[in-house]
Amino acid sequence: MRDFIIAPSILSADFARLGEEVENVLAAGTDWVHFDVMDNHYVPNLTLGPMVCKALRKFGVTAPIDVHLMVSPVDRIIGDFIEAGASMITFHPEASEHIDRSLQLIREGGCQAGLVLNPATSPDVLEYVMDKLDMILLMSVNPGFGGQKFIPSTLKKLCRVRKLIDDSGLNIRLQVDGGVTANNIRQIAEAGADTFVAGSAIFGAENYQHVVSQMRSELAEVVAL
Ligand SMILES: O=C(CO)[C@H](O)[C@H](O)COP(=O)(O)O
Ligand SMILES: [Fe+2]
Question: Ligand 1 center to residue 44 CA distance, Å?
Fold first, then answer.
């Protein structure tokens, strides 16, 4: 059985009360903080930068902060997030001029590194960098906004990437991001994911603990992997 990680996306949190929201969602039983960085260039939306990451650390957040960079170019912002207290940093290959170099920059800074594949991006891009990855993130919506519907073809892609990871013998997490809910999390886990980003499904709920418990119960039903 894999260990499952739930990473709430703070994109759907109340930004005016961000520190408190992060405390509450972690107290509800989640594991990581998924931190969506959008630049209004690589994606048509604008969100959070390294100063906000630093502020969360100063506020007392000790949980891993999982920085999902949707910015282009990526390299010049990596150092700022390392300095701001990021734990892992993922980026989109289309947004980096030198994928191998960007991955190295992240690891050299002491963070875990990962690549993010958009729904239409082929897993072929992973082939020559597998040994430099701590995580692969498959987008199950097009990046840029929370609250979108899960794209079903992601399930087939998850199976393919799960096999790639298992065949490699490397310790790489397989994360899924976009439209994850308590209703589909089990099917997503059975397709191969071990790390689940959920924004609107958690922050849109009246009771965070209730929805996180529902997700955990669904994950407990996942047939032995
Ligand atoms: O990276 C993202 C969007 O680009 C977000 O992490 C993602 O959309 C999560 O939100 P939701 O669970 O509401 O779909
Ligand atoms: Fe994300």
Answer: 14
Question: How many other C-beta atoms can be found within 10 angstroms of the C-beta atom of residue 177?
Answer: 26
Q: Which residue from 69, 119, 72, 129 is spatially nearest to 99, judged by alpha carbons?
A: 129
User: Which among 36, 39, 66, 194 is annotated as catalytic?
Assistant: 36
State pLDDT tens for residues 50-81: 999 999 999 999 999 999 999 999 999 999 99
From the options 3.20.20.140, 3.10.20.580, 3.20.20.70, 1.10.580.10, give the CATH code of 5-220. 3.20.20.70
Cα angle 46-5-173, degrees, rounded to a multiple of 5: 85
217 is in an annotated binding site: no
d(CA 88, CA 174): 13
Would you say the C-alpha torsion 72, 77, 78, 84 has a positive or negative sign?
A: negative
166 in catalytic set: no
Distance in Å, CA 74 to ligand 1 centroid? 19
What are the pocket residues of ligand 1 if the criterion is a CB atom closer than 6 Å to any ligand atom? 9, 11-12, 34, 36, 68, 141, 143-148, 177-180, 197-201
Here the ipTM equals: 0.98
Q: How far apart are CA 196 and CA 56, in angstroms?
A: 21
